[in-house]
Protein backbone atom coordinates (compact mmCIF):
# COMPACT_ATOMS: atom_id res chain seq x y z
CA UNK A 1 0.00 0.00 0.00
CA UNK A 2 1.12 3.54 -0.59
CA UNK A 3 1.32 6.45 1.73
CA UNK A 4 2.11 4.64 5.01
CA UNK A 5 4.52 5.69 7.70
CA UNK A 6 4.26 9.37 8.54
CA UNK A 7 1.37 9.85 6.10
CA UNK A 8 3.45 11.96 3.71
CA UNK A 9 3.90 9.38 0.96
CA UNK A 10 2.69 9.76 -2.58
CA UNK A 11 -1.06 9.45 -3.15
CA UNK A 12 -2.53 7.87 -6.27
CA UNK A 13 -2.72 10.48 -9.01
CA UNK A 14 -6.18 9.29 -10.05
CA UNK A 15 -7.79 10.56 -6.84
CA UNK A 16 -8.15 14.22 -5.95
CA UNK A 17 -8.22 13.98 -2.17
CA UNK A 18 -8.84 17.71 -1.77
CA UNK A 19 -11.95 17.30 -3.92
CA UNK A 20 -13.01 14.36 -1.77
CA UNK A 21 -12.65 16.49 1.36
CA UNK A 22 -14.59 19.39 -0.15
CA UNK A 23 -17.40 17.13 -1.40
CA UNK A 24 -18.05 15.94 2.15
CA UNK A 25 -17.79 19.42 3.67
CA UNK A 26 -20.09 20.91 1.03
CA UNK A 27 -22.76 18.34 1.86
CA UNK A 28 -22.30 19.01 5.58
CA UNK A 29 -22.89 22.72 5.01
CA UNK A 30 -25.97 21.93 2.92
CA UNK A 31 -27.33 19.70 5.68
CA UNK A 32 -26.53 22.25 8.38
CA UNK A 33 -28.18 25.31 6.84
CA UNK A 34 -29.22 24.51 3.27
CA UNK A 35 -32.11 22.11 3.76
CA UNK A 36 -30.34 19.12 2.19
CA UNK A 37 -32.19 16.60 4.36
CA UNK A 38 -35.66 18.14 4.11
CA UNK A 39 -37.10 15.39 1.90
CA UNK A 40 -36.44 13.22 -1.16
CA UNK A 41 -36.76 16.19 -3.52
CA UNK A 42 -34.16 18.26 -1.68
CA UNK A 43 -31.74 15.32 -1.50
CA UNK A 44 -32.19 14.52 -5.18
CA UNK A 45 -31.80 18.15 -6.28
CA UNK A 46 -28.72 18.77 -4.14
CA UNK A 47 -26.85 15.66 -5.24
CA UNK A 48 -27.79 16.04 -8.91
CA UNK A 49 -26.61 19.65 -8.92
CA UNK A 50 -23.29 18.46 -7.49
CA UNK A 51 -22.65 15.93 -10.25
CA UNK A 52 -24.06 12.78 -8.65
CA UNK A 53 -26.23 10.39 -10.67
CA UNK A 54 -28.68 7.62 -9.80
CA UNK A 55 -27.36 4.08 -9.51
CA UNK A 56 -29.23 0.90 -10.34
CA UNK A 57 -30.72 0.45 -6.86
CA UNK A 58 -33.00 2.99 -5.23
CA UNK A 59 -30.98 5.34 -3.01
CA UNK A 60 -27.65 4.32 -4.57
CA UNK A 61 -25.60 7.07 -6.22
CA UNK A 62 -22.58 7.27 -8.49
CA UNK A 63 -20.24 10.03 -7.40
CA UNK A 64 -18.62 12.82 -9.41
CA UNK A 65 -15.59 11.91 -11.51
CA UNK A 66 -12.53 11.37 -9.34
CA UNK A 67 -14.39 10.50 -6.15
CA UNK A 68 -13.23 7.08 -4.89
CA UNK A 69 -16.59 5.88 -3.70
CA UNK A 70 -20.36 6.08 -3.92
CA UNK A 71 -23.36 7.49 -2.10
CA UNK A 72 -26.37 6.00 -0.33
CA UNK A 73 -29.47 8.03 0.51
CA UNK A 74 -32.53 7.04 2.52
CA UNK A 75 -35.81 8.60 3.64
CA UNK A 76 -36.36 6.71 6.91
CA UNK A 77 -34.95 8.94 8.25
CA UNK A 78 -33.61 11.31 5.56
CA UNK A 79 -29.90 10.63 5.26
CA UNK A 80 -26.93 10.93 2.94
CA UNK A 81 -23.93 8.64 3.36
CA UNK A 82 -20.73 8.83 1.36
CA UNK A 83 -18.69 5.62 1.41
CA UNK A 84 -15.13 5.89 0.17
CA UNK A 85 -12.67 3.06 -0.42
CA UNK A 86 -9.13 2.96 -1.77
CA UNK A 87 -6.01 0.80 -1.44
CA UNK A 88 -4.22 3.82 0.05
CA UNK A 89 -5.77 3.47 3.48
CA UNK A 90 -3.31 6.05 4.86
CA UNK A 91 -4.86 8.63 2.55
CA UNK A 92 -8.36 7.67 3.68
CA UNK A 93 -7.23 7.93 7.29
CA UNK A 94 -5.87 11.44 6.71
CA UNK A 95 -9.04 12.53 4.91
CA UNK A 96 -11.19 11.22 7.80
CA UNK A 97 -9.18 13.30 10.25
CA UNK A 98 -9.28 16.35 7.96
CA UNK A 99 -13.06 16.08 7.59
CA UNK A 100 -13.44 15.88 11.37
CA UNK A 101 -11.12 18.88 11.87
CA UNK A 102 -13.07 21.00 9.39
CA UNK A 103 -16.42 19.91 10.82
CA UNK A 104 -15.35 21.22 14.21
CA UNK A 105 -15.03 24.64 12.58
CA UNK A 106 -18.50 24.29 11.05
CA UNK A 107 -20.45 22.52 13.82
CA UNK A 108 -18.39 23.07 16.94
CA UNK A 109 -16.95 20.44 19.23
CA UNK A 110 -18.28 16.92 18.58
CA UNK A 111 -20.04 14.81 21.20
CA UNK A 112 -17.25 12.29 20.79
CA UNK A 113 -14.09 11.93 18.75
CA UNK A 114 -11.69 9.02 18.47
CA UNK A 115 -9.60 7.21 19.12
CA UNK A 116 -9.30 6.37 15.43
CA UNK A 117 -7.22 3.35 14.42
CA UNK A 118 -4.36 4.24 12.13
CA UNK A 119 -3.61 2.28 8.95
CA UNK A 120 -1.23 -0.16 10.70
CA UNK A 121 -3.25 -0.61 13.90
CA UNK A 122 -5.33 -3.60 14.89
CA UNK A 123 -8.98 -3.06 14.00
CA UNK A 124 -11.18 -2.72 17.08
CA UNK A 125 -14.89 -2.37 16.35
CA UNK A 126 -15.21 -0.07 19.37
CA UNK A 127 -12.64 2.32 17.90
CA UNK A 128 -13.89 2.92 14.37
CA UNK A 129 -15.59 6.24 15.01
CA UNK A 130 -13.62 9.33 14.12
CA UNK A 131 -16.20 11.87 15.28
CA UNK A 132 -19.91 12.23 16.09
CA UNK A 133 -22.03 15.39 16.18
CA UNK A 134 -25.55 14.94 17.51
CA UNK A 135 -28.31 17.58 17.43
CA UNK A 136 -32.08 17.13 17.47
CA UNK A 137 -32.22 17.99 13.76
CA UNK A 138 -28.86 16.72 12.50
CA UNK A 139 -26.51 13.84 13.18
CA UNK A 140 -23.07 13.71 11.56
CA UNK A 141 -20.78 10.69 11.83
CA UNK A 142 -17.31 10.29 10.33
CA UNK A 143 -15.72 6.86 10.63
CA UNK A 144 -12.68 5.08 9.28
CA UNK A 145 -12.20 1.32 9.07
CA UNK A 146 -8.72 0.04 8.16
CA UNK A 147 -8.57 -2.94 5.80
CA UNK A 148 -8.81 -6.42 7.24
CA UNK A 149 -5.25 -7.80 7.01
CA UNK A 150 -6.56 -11.28 6.18
CA UNK A 151 -10.00 -10.93 4.57
CA UNK A 152 -11.65 -14.19 3.56
CA UNK A 153 -13.32 -12.70 0.49
CA UNK A 154 -10.25 -11.12 -1.13
CA UNK A 155 -9.19 -12.49 -4.51
CA UNK A 156 -5.55 -13.60 -4.99
CA UNK A 157 -3.41 -10.54 -5.69
CA UNK A 158 -6.18 -8.15 -4.63
CA UNK A 159 -5.17 -5.42 -2.17
CA UNK A 160 -7.50 -5.12 0.86
CA UNK A 161 -9.05 -1.66 1.05
CA UNK A 162 -9.92 0.59 3.94
CA UNK A 163 -13.26 2.37 4.16
CA UNK A 164 -14.28 5.88 5.13
CA UNK A 165 -17.93 6.59 5.92
CA UNK A 166 -19.38 10.09 6.13
CA UNK A 167 -23.05 10.08 7.17
CA UNK A 168 -25.57 12.92 7.57
CA UNK A 169 -28.94 12.09 9.15
CA UNK A 170 -32.08 13.86 10.40
CA UNK A 171 -32.92 12.04 13.65
CA UNK A 172 -36.09 14.10 14.19
CA UNK A 173 -37.91 12.32 11.33
CA UNK A 174 -39.57 9.14 12.57
CA UNK A 175 -40.99 7.65 9.34
CA UNK A 176 -40.56 3.88 9.22
CA UNK A 177 -39.99 1.39 6.40
CA UNK A 178 -42.46 -0.85 8.22
CA UNK A 179 -45.32 1.61 7.56
CA UNK A 180 -47.25 -0.08 4.75
CA UNK A 181 -49.73 2.80 4.37
CA UNK A 182 -46.86 5.26 3.90
CA UNK A 183 -45.25 3.02 1.27
CA UNK A 184 -48.52 2.68 -0.63
CA UNK A 185 -49.08 6.44 -0.55
CA UNK A 186 -45.60 7.16 -1.90
CA UNK A 187 -45.92 4.53 -4.63
CA UNK A 188 -49.20 6.06 -5.80
CA UNK A 189 -48.71 9.78 -5.20
CA UNK A 190 -45.04 10.37 -4.41
CA UNK A 191 -42.62 12.28 -6.58
CA UNK A 192 -40.30 10.30 -8.84
CA UNK A 193 -37.49 10.87 -6.33
CA UNK A 194 -39.67 9.50 -3.51
CA UNK A 195 -40.70 6.47 -5.57
CA UNK A 196 -37.10 5.76 -6.60
CA UNK A 197 -35.97 5.92 -2.97
CA UNK A 198 -38.90 3.70 -1.99
CA UNK A 199 -37.60 0.93 -4.26
CA UNK A 200 -34.45 0.73 -2.13
CA UNK A 201 -36.28 -0.12 1.09
CA UNK A 202 -35.59 -3.47 2.69
CA UNK A 203 -39.30 -3.91 3.41
CA UNK A 204 -41.97 -3.46 0.72
CA UNK A 205 -45.50 -4.92 0.64
CA UNK A 206 -46.29 -7.01 -2.44
CA UNK A 207 -48.92 -4.55 -3.71
CA UNK A 208 -46.41 -1.70 -3.48
CA UNK A 209 -43.83 -3.74 -5.41
CA UNK A 210 -46.43 -4.30 -8.14
CA UNK A 211 -47.17 -0.58 -8.32
CA UNK A 212 -43.48 0.25 -8.60
CA UNK A 213 -42.84 -2.45 -11.21
CA UNK A 214 -45.46 -0.72 -13.36
CA UNK A 215 -44.26 2.82 -12.64
CA UNK A 216 -44.40 5.35 -15.47
CA UNK A 217 -40.71 6.15 -14.95
CA UNK A 218 -38.59 3.24 -16.26
CA UNK A 219 -35.82 4.04 -13.77
CA UNK A 220 -38.19 3.35 -10.88
CA UNK A 221 -39.45 0.12 -12.43
CA UNK A 222 -35.89 -1.05 -13.10
CA UNK A 223 -34.76 -0.14 -9.58
CA UNK A 224 -37.48 -2.12 -7.80
CA UNK A 225 -36.72 -5.17 -9.94
CA UNK A 226 -32.99 -4.79 -9.30
CA UNK A 227 -33.65 -4.71 -5.55
CA UNK A 228 -35.64 -7.97 -5.49
CA UNK A 229 -32.69 -10.20 -4.60
CA UNK A 230 -31.61 -7.89 -1.77
CA UNK A 231 -35.14 -7.77 -0.31
CA UNK A 232 -35.36 -11.55 -0.41
CA UNK A 233 -31.97 -11.95 1.26
CA UNK A 234 -32.85 -9.50 4.03
CA UNK A 235 -36.23 -11.15 4.57
CA UNK A 236 -34.63 -14.59 4.89
CA UNK A 237 -32.21 -13.29 7.54
CA UNK A 238 -35.12 -11.89 9.55
CA UNK A 239 -36.91 -15.25 9.65
Kindly summarize this structure in a few lines.
Helices cover 38% and strands 18% of the residues.
Describe the structure.
The chain has 239 residues and is α+β, with helices and mostly antiparallel strands. It has 2 domains: 17-169; 180-238, no CATH class. It is 38% helix and 18% strand. The protein has helices spanning 17-33, 40-49, 89-107, 180-189, 192-198, 206-213, 218-226, 228-238, and strands spanning 53-54, 60-62, 69-75, 78-86, 112-113, 129-134, 139-145, 162-169. The chain has an 8-stranded antiparallel sheet. α1 runs parallel beside α3 and α4 (180-189) runs parallel beside α6 (206-213). It is globular and about 45 Å long. Residues 1-12 have low confidence and may be disordered.
Blueprint (SSEs and pairs):
Elements: H1 17-33, H2 40-49, E1 53-54, E2 60-62, E3 69-75, E4 78-86, H3 89-107, E5 112-113, E6 129-134, E7 139-145, E8 162-169, H4 180-189, H5 192-198, H6 206-213, H7 218-226, H8 228-238
Antiparallel strand pairs: 1-2, 2-3, 3-4, 4-8, 5-6, 6-7, 7-8
Helix pairs in contact: 1-3, 4-6, 5-7
